[in-house]
Design a protein that fits this description.
The protein is mainly alpha-helical. The chain is built from 13 helices and no strands. The two termini are 32 Å apart. It is a multi-pass membrane protein. Belongs to the binding-protein-dependent transport system permease family.
Length: 289
């Protein structure tokens, strides 16, 4: 087996096996695709501007002019959910992207170098893991301010250890393989070995964690917005909508119910996708299912 075929054989097999995904995984992909499309085309799909108020129609029930009802300010719930999807998806995507890049780099360095470097880097990750992710995210956003950039940074920081641990264990598995030894014998630099030979082999495992942590990022963003540390009003974030709806939940549960269902649907979809990708790269899990 040559070095090039050894380092690239997993990716074609991984993508070729997408046809083996089960029905629930495809359901997750469809849900995410629909929500992404709804977020992109929100200005065309929303019947009203998300911040438009009509005090006469406050807490209007679903139906009529308001398909999903209106909140306490008479704002259309459906329009706000469509525009709120933008914040959840953008914050979740960039938070996971940053965490994936930084965590994978840290994990690859720790796993490939070993020794003291491995110990120091993993102990730093253990310190971060010692704090509950939501509590740490609350502390960071409270210190830095509730802007989109700061929320992305806070969620990404709490997610880095998950990626670094997965990347480290995957690199340790790969670093003693024949193709890596061949690369060393040919005089390739550690950077080239990691980026061009080991990274393609471990990328499927990283993508599985990314899909699962997208769900966590969406949930964390909604939690921060619910406690008042999300994007400032009148931006229509799902967590903020749930918080506002709780003020009148006994008389009108719909303003809190529908954004809660949107959060549930998106988190469920990413979990379904992550489970399907995990089964795809792990034959034992696929056989068990």
């Amino acid at each position: 087996m040559t070095v090039s075929t050894a380092r690239t054989h997993k990716l074609p097999r991984f993508f070729a096996a997408l046809g083996q995904l089960n029905a629930t995984t495809w359901a997750g992909l469809v849900i995410v695709a629909v929500l992404v499309a709804a977020a992109v085309f929100a200005p065309q799909l929303a019947p009203y501007a998300p911040a438009k108020q009509n005090i006469i129609d406050q807490l209007a029930p679903p139906g009529g002019d308001y398909l999903l009802g209106a909140d306490q300010y008479g704002r259309d719930t459906l329009s706000r959910i469509l525009f709120g999807a933008r914040y959840s998806l953008v914050i979740g995507f960039f938070a996971v992207l940053v965490a994936m890049v930084l965590g994978t780099i840290i994990g690859m360095i720790a796993g490939f170098k070993g020794g003291r470097t491995d110990v120091i880097l993993m102990q730093i990750m253990d310190v971060v893991l010692a704090f509950p992710s939501l509590i740490l995210g609350i502390a960071l956003v409270a210190l830095m301010g509730a802007t989109i950039t700061n929320i992305v940074a806070a969620i990404a920081f709490t997610s880095i250890p998950a990626f670094s641990r997965v990347a480290r264990s995957a690199v340790i598995t790969q670093r003693d393989r024949e193709y890596v030894q061949a690369c060393r014998a040919m005089g390739f630099s550690p950077t080239r070995i990691l980026l061009r030979h080991i990274l393609p082999a471990i990328l499927p495992e990283i993508m599985v964690i990314a899909s699962l942590w997208m769900a966590n990022a969406v949930r964390t963003e909604a939690s921060l917005a619910f406690i008042g540390l999300g994007i400032a009003p009148p931006a229509p974030t799902w967590g903020g909508m749930v918080r506002d709806g709780f003020e009148n939940i006994l008389s009108s549960p719909y303003p809190a119910l529908f954004p809660s269902l949107a959060i549930l649907l998106l988190v469920l979809a990413f979990n379904l996708i992550g489970d399907g990708l995990r089964d795809l790269i792990d034959p034992r899990m696929r056989d068990a299912s």
